[in-house]
Specification:
43% helix; mainly alpha; elongated
């Protein structure tokens, strides 16, 4: 006599089925891959897209941009000298 196997379901799979049976079918039966980018990943990627091209031209401090700090002696943003 053939042995009957009972499929095992995870809690998340049951919850997904209760939320949307069609989504459950696409994910677990049809195995259609799904890519969903989080808000954090989206914003992080946009930040890197905006800043990395400017970094390739040179560092921010040596590029002379208005946002760079002066590191000469006596200025408010200067690091203290280690000689002494």
């Amino acid at each position: 006599m053939a042995r009957l196997t009972v499929p095992e379901y995870s809690i998340s799979q049951i919850e997904k089925f209760e939320e949307c049976p069609r989504q459950d079918k696409f994910t677990y039966v049809d195995r259609i891959p799904r890519y969903e980018e989080s808000v954090e990943a989206f914003l992080g990627q946009r930040f890197h897209d905006a800043t990395i091209p400017s970094r390739r031209a040179g560092s921010w401090a040596s590029s002379g941009s208005s946002g760079s700090r002066s590191t000469t002696k006596g200025s408010a943003g200067a690091m203290p000298s280690s000689t002494g």
